[in-house]
Specification:
By secondary structure, the chain is an alpha+beta fold. It folds into three domains: about 75-150, no CATH class; about 185-270, PDZ domain (Pdz3 Domain, Roll), CATH 2.30.42.10; about 275-400, no CATH class. Helix content is about 55%, strand content about 20%. The protein has 15 helices and ten strands. It has helices at about 1-25, 75-85, 90-105, 105-110, 115-125, 130-145, 155-180, 210, 235-240, 275-295, 300, 310-320, 325-340, 350-360, 370-400, and strands at about 35-50, 50-65, 185-190, 190-195, 200-205, 220-225, 225, 245-250, 255-260, 265-270. The strands form four sheets. A four-stranded antiparallel beta sheet has the order 7-6-8-9. A two-stranded antiparallel sheet has the order 1-2. It has a two-stranded antiparallel ribbon with strand order 3-10. The chain is elongated, with a radius of gyration of 27 Å.
């Protein structure tokens, strides 16, 4: 049940991110062609006013298809239609005519040829893959040559459409943090404060931590005999619900087991809305600084990187602690998603913003192959980060 709640929360953040792109695109006169939660193939879909809405069967994200992200190029169109022409030579005259129109810069004429070519492709004897490729090529040509194509818009409109996704995540994070701060909460604690490294920086007097001999400078490495990372320590202690637990620390080069001791139930009243809103901005800024610092020092801090598995695990732990913790974690996740998407790498939103600004300064579109090469570099970077994150998560599970 908690895993389902976790996945639902993550899906909601993705939906809101895509809703940001979708809403601003409509607002500036660019009509998206599809809006999906998850990736196709669709479980269910419906076309309303020329926009296909659907729920995809691959629950790893979401998408909004903005028409004409790139200017149609004759060479690209010919390459995409090459297999279809080989299998059905009768298509060659129509493909050549569309290519000539694209070479001449007559986008209206090229777009007008799409319906004729589409009918010819429908009647041609093609393999399934070739047919799908040809249909996509015609769709890309039709959308790329349309008057509301993304690449034809003024720079501010393009930046606004792309920036809307991360901006939505940041706004949602502030709202979630505000909501979390207004909630009253109950937690089970031992009475100490931790540094990010897992070292104890303060021990409260007359609390269980002091009574079992926990000292400033101790590094907590296990709770109830289970190895924990620094960020897991509060969760593990809170999950005790008042029962006695032991804490294992590293002290002067050796491991010491402290306790057992019962955790202390502590209740915190919720903040007034105004105070909660101010605190949410402070917390958001602190998290942004932390995320930026993490990427700046990524080679030294790569062990803190986590994959989707680690994120789901952390979210599940927050669900088990209670609504306030889960809402706060979703706020952190939403803010992280927004900031991560602003990295200046394709295919992230930040990469599209950078290329939109470059094209605005140049006064003409960047060739599609340049986009593809930049995207290949970005995908390679993300693949490396994913491998590191999976390695960290797998190592973490193995250590337990």
């Amino acid at each position: 049940m908690t895993v389902a709640i976790t996945l639902l929360g993550i899906a909601a953040l993705v939906f809101l991110h895509e809703l940001g792109h979708f809403s601003v695109a409509l607002g500036v006169g660019v009509r998206p062609r599809s809006f999906y939660v998850g990736f196709p193939p669709p479980i269910v879909k419906k076309v309303v006013n020329g926009i296909e809405y659907g729920i995809g069967s691959i629950p790893l994200g979401g998408l909004v298809r903005i028409p004409g992200m790139h200017r149609p190029a004759a060479a690209d169109f010919e390459a995409q239609m090459a297999s279809a022409v080989r299998e059905a030579p009768d298509l060659r005259p129509g493909v050549n005519a569309a290519r000539r129109d694209l070479d001449a810069g007559d986008l209206a004429a090229a777009r007008a040829s799409v319906e004729t070519l589409r009918a010819a492709v429908a009647e041609a004897e093609l393999t399934a893959l070739t047919r799908k490729t040809a249909e996509r090529a015609l769709r890309d040509l039709e959308e790329g040559a349309s008057t509301d194509a993304y690449w034809r818009q003024r720079t501010w409109k393009r930046v606004a459409i792309i920036l809307a996704g991360p901006a939505m995540n940041i706004a949602v994070a502030i709202a979630l943090f505000t909501g979390a701060f207004t909630m009253s909460s109950t937690a089970y604690r031992l009475g100490f404060s931790l540094a990010p490294s897992g070292k104890v920086v303060a021990v409260l007097a007359d609390h269980p931590a002091q009574r079992i001999g926990l000292r400033t400078g101790d590094k907590i490495v296990a709770v109830d005999g289970t190895s924990v990372s620094p960020d897991e320590i509060p969760t593990k202690i809170a999950s005790s619900k008042g029962r006695p637990i032991t804490v294992t620390v590293e002290r002067a080069g050796r491991r010491v087991v402290l306790g057992p001791a019962r955790t202390l139930r502590t209740t915190f009243p919720g903040e007034p809305f105004g105070t909660a809103l101010k605190d949410s901005f402070r917390q958001s800024w602190a998290i942004v600084r932390g995320i930026v610092g993490f990427f700046v020092h990524l080679p030294q801090r790569h062990r803190e990187l986590h994959s989707t598995i680690g994120i789901v695990k952390a979210s599940d732990a927050a669900v088990r602690q209670g609504l306030q913790y889960y809402v706060g974690f979703l706020g952190f996740l939403s803010l992280s998603l927004g900031i991560f998407n602003l990295l200046p790498l394709l295919p992230l939103d930040g990469g599209h913003i950078v290329f939109s600004l470059i094209e605005g300064l140049r006064g003409r579109a960047v060739r599609r192959e340049v986009y593809e090469r930049a995207s290949a570099i970005g995908i390679a970077v993300f693949a490396l980060l994913l491998v590191v994150g999976l390695s960290n998560d797998t190592h973490g599970f193995g250590s337990r």
